[in-house]
């Protein structure tokens, strides 16, 4: 779920039916789905995360189609790949989007997927650190320290030195 700060509409990501946007004042839904051979459609119908960034842009992570940015005026999407340049692997099973207080937009990916950060100047997602994979949680604390979770660990991430410390929890950290 994501509430659009500009319109008050509620964006709902579904597991197989794409994106639905609920206009509360009119009590109507607009639906967006993947359409074969249409590069301006949603890239996949399993939407795992929705974030509105500091500019008001709506970003969606999909489990099978990478990242999408919604163009509200046209109802179309710009697709973004998360490609690990060292291996050529396209991490299309994206899971979580998060914007930190520095206004950096992050994305996590599964299937040995990496942690990516949006390079706004190049308009592309780039691997942040090769050894952080399959993250299921991402958050900052009140001091600006970045934390992540995977299937077994709480992870403290040092953005400046690109290092991290694992705290074994023995269970998934969400």
Name a few traits of the molecule.
single chain, 174 residues, mainly beta, 4-stranded antiparallel β-sheet, 18 strands
Please explain how this structure is put together.
It is built from no helices and 18 strands. The protein has strands at 2-3, 10-13, 19-23, 28-32, 47-52, 58-62, 66-71, 76-80, 83-84, 89-90, 94-99, 105-109, 114-119, 124-133, 137-140, 146-149, 153-158, 163-168. The strands form 5 sheets. Strands 1-2-3-4 form a 4-stranded antiparallel β-sheet, with no helix packed on it. The chain has a 4-stranded antiparallel β-sheet with strand order 5-6-7-8, with no helix packed on it. The mean pLDDT is 95.
Helical residue percent band: under 10%
**Count of DSSP helices?**
0
Radius of gyration: 16 Å
Sequence of strands across the biggest β-sheet: 1-2-3-4
Q: Which class best fits the helix and strand makeup?
A: mainly beta
The share of residues in extended strands comes to over 45%
Secondary-structure element order, as H and E? Answer: EEEEEEEEEEEEEEEEEE
The major pleated sheet works out as: 4 strands, antiparallel
Give the rounded overall mean pLDDT.
95
Shape: globular
The overall strand count is 18
Low-confidence stretches: none
Q: Distance between termini? A: 17 Å
